[in-house]
Write a structure and sequence with these properties.
By secondary structure, the chain is of the alpha+beta class. Helices cover 44% and strands 6% of the residues. The longest helix has 31 residues, at 138-168. It binds glutathione.
């Protein structure tokens, strides 16, 4: 370790727009809208404004799982919010999520349209609305909630910590990479131990906790995240986590949910009907 380039913080931090790194152009220290822009509204009661990142995939998987169970009321329009272009700072989007992050949901089936933001809050909202993927037994429900909240608290160490410094920062720095690799591997080890004794995250039932956790840790395990960080993380050693990643990934609803709000062959930038998937097969 060398401290020759040590940063000495000024007395008062000021906004340096040239700080570099991926996302530098969209990060800002001020909340709220930067421009006027209405959101489109499609034909279904549920309008999702999102992107096919792990946080976005949680919700499209849930909606596809609900549809697979026959809940016609879970039909949805999914609109792509390009966070690289700053769509999350449009006035319409900020009206649905004042925190300017995907995913955000509007439910037009309620007397007054209901806005829902934060991915886990959306999962809970949909789980309660349709009575699915949340255990009825109080002890099982509590265990499920614990893992759901664990995911919300843990993801920033993986994405904003490990992923950012390993893959997106303008240059590699040993200290933050060490710090967040340590934490990311600790989380993977924790999940591995939990999944050694349980088929699903919260026990024997597939729940919204699985839907919240899977998109994040499947990417670490199968190499999809952070320029194939699986090797660096030695992800193969977490055998129970790998088993669960594979099992969940085989579900048809998960396969469909992963294809929504993304560009590229086989993916849907927008999704307005179940038949949309056939059009890009
Ligand atoms: N805790 C939030 C995190 C959402 C989040 O970080 N979304 C990212 C994409 S995965 C985003 O919209 N970033 C845009 C920005 O920060 O401006 C959730 O779970 O919904």
């Amino acid at each position: 370790m060398t401290d020759s380039n040590e940063y000495v913080p000024p007395k008062v931090w000021t906004w340096d727009k040239e700080s570099g790194g991926r996302f530098a152009n969209i990060n800002r220290p001020i909340s709220g809208a930067t421009h006027e822009k209405e959101l489109p509204v499609g034909k279904h009661p549920l309008q999702l404004y999102s992107l096919g990142t792990p946080n976005g995939v949680k919700v499209t998987v849930m909606l596809e799982e609900l549809l697979a169970l026959g809940h016609a009321g879970a039909e949805y329009d999914a609109w792509l919010i390009n966070i690289g272009e700053g769509d999350q700072f449009g006035s319409g989007f900020v009206g649905v999520n004042p925190n300017s992050k995907i995913p955000a949901l509007m439910d037009h089936s309620t007397a007054e349209p209901t806005r829902v933001f934060e991915s886990a809050s959306i999962l809970l909202y949909l789980g309660e609305k349709f009575g699915e993927f949340i255990p009825n037994d109080p002890a099982k429900r509590t265990e499920m909630m614990s893992w759901l909240f664990w995911q919300v608290g843990s993801a920033p160490y993986v994405g904003g910590g490990f992923g950012h410094f390993y893959a997106y920062a303008p240059y590699k720095m040993e200290y933050p990479i060490n710090r967040f690799t340590m934490e990311t591997k600790r989380q993977m080890d924790l999940l591995d131990k939990q999944l050694a004794d349980n088929r699903f995250i919260a026990g024997d039932e597939y729940t919204i906790a699985d839907m919240a956790i899977w998109p994040w840790y499947s990417g670490l395990v199968n190499g999809a995240s952070y320029n194939n960080a699986a090797e660096f993380l030695d992800a193969g050693i977490y055998t129970h986590l790998n088993r669960w990643v594979e099992e969940i990934g085989e579900r048809e609803a998960v396969k469909r949910g992963r294809r929504v709000n993304r560009g590229g062959d086989g993916y849907l930038r927008e999704r307005h009907d179940a038949s949309d998937f056939d059009s890009v097969e």
